[in-house]
# Entry
Amino acid sequence: MSAELRGLGVSAGSAAGPALRLGTPPKLPAAEPVVTDSQAEAERAVAALEAVGEFLRGRAEAADGAAAEILAAEAMMAGDPALAGKVRGLAGAGRAAAWAVREALADYRAMLTAAGGYLAERAADLDDIADRAVALLLGEPMPGIPSPGYSFVLLAEELAPADTATLDPAAVLAIVTERGGPTSHTAILAKTLGIPAVVSCPGAASVADGTMLAVDGSAGTVLAEPSPRQLAELARRRAEHAARLRAARGPGRTRDGHPVKLLANIGGPAVIAADAEGVGLLRTEFLFLDRRDEPSGEEQRATYAEILAGMRGRKVVVRTLDAGADKPLAFASQEAEPNPALGIRGLRLGALLPGLLDTQLEALALAAKDTGADVWVMAPMVSVPAEAAAFAERARSHGLPLAGVMIEVPAAALCAAAIIEQADFVSIGTNDLSQYTFAADRQAGELAPLLDPWQPALLRLIAMTADAGRTAGKPVSVCGEAASDPLLAVVLTGLGVTSLSMAPPALAEVRAALAGHTLAQCEAAAAAALAAATPDQARTAASAALADQDSRS
Ligand code: PEP
Ligand code: MG
# Structure
């Protein structure tokens, strides 16, 4: 009999194939060898770190977009002179090279984990660096994605950014991880690569290599040893699904023609599909986070102009820098904060360092002029109407006519009417809105059920915001991961959201889901989901409402 595992479906689509586990990290032997030449041992340890940095840089060059950024950041960590100094110190004091590397990186890891937020998320990068360097020093194969010469379903406890960033969609049919949440690296990158993925799936890591698995990344199910009938059913669903995707083209709209703009989330220069209606979220952090000095206005202007020109007249919503204590900037470091996610972040940093925000707004305004692009600008981490008003005024003073804010703090959703009065539009960042509503760190895999975007409390905050937008006659977008769930996109439309922005590979799925239902059906699904008590009940209630309306039409 086939056994079923259940997790969170975070990247739609289905696939079947043999399971293969991620290469396991090397283990240090029980006895540490006695070192005779501590100087030579220190050099060996540092050389291993350098080799890992080189390896990661090579992978970064071969990748693009988010993957390239993640790998380049990890390569920089591996080459950090302070880390090399620490490793040298330990090896110089008599530790064997592999042990010195492990200990130095464990110390760094503890520091990052204690800092919480974005920095804690980087802890996985350090583990990856340590594993690779230790494997090199012990003469073992590098851990990571296996390459057996056939396609497989990748199983792991959790993926390191370096692994997710270089997944080959032709070889990896689907990803199933024991841990990780809906906003983890695994989820975002799997979606970007269009690989079906299920995360937070208990039992996944102990499935034996070679077990046949059928993975449904929409439903969040993993079937072990499916019967021929189940495999045939999966193939039928896959073909039907592919046909539906091919049939859905053009601008986003419901079956009865209600328009919902479908936009792309990007994090740097990108090429988006011809029928994407523009960019709903350009994350500008890529220009700042790994820099020792603030990028000049001229450099920013040139980079923005390059991105804007590539969009050929389509709307581009640019988010101003979302950095702060949890994504520290080398050139604008603040005092360490005990709770970085609750600290000087996003627009709050802009208020503290007005020059930083002004340079960015000025560069954007000039790039908009250079290209004639349709630029909308918005601020992250806005909590009160006064912040929205101040941001809109600043943007307009630079000649940017359309200024909006993100709704990602519960206070902003609760007072959405007053906030939207000060802005031209709002965009709901459901990743952070979940984190702050449920007091649950968005990177903490074990808290994934709280961060489920179908949580009725989150849906209610979205409904309040959409209502405020409708009353004011202003656009309300969703640009968090929630927008890329096809069934949830139907519900969001029913709640009154006017545009949805997501990782580009998710656009076709969402377009097809909207095209399959009328606005009245979307509204019925939204009402059913809002009235539910749990995320699972919300999903079931929304599906049942759609099926019920289908049977009546
Ligand atoms: C969000 O919080 O939902 C969002 C879109 O912003 P980011 O994921 O960049 O914090
Ligand atoms: Mg956010």
In short: The two ends are 39 Å apart (CA to CA). The chain is about 45% helix and 15% strand. Residues 380, 408, 429, 431-432 surround magnesium ion (ligand 2) (CB under 6 Å). The mean pLDDT is 90.
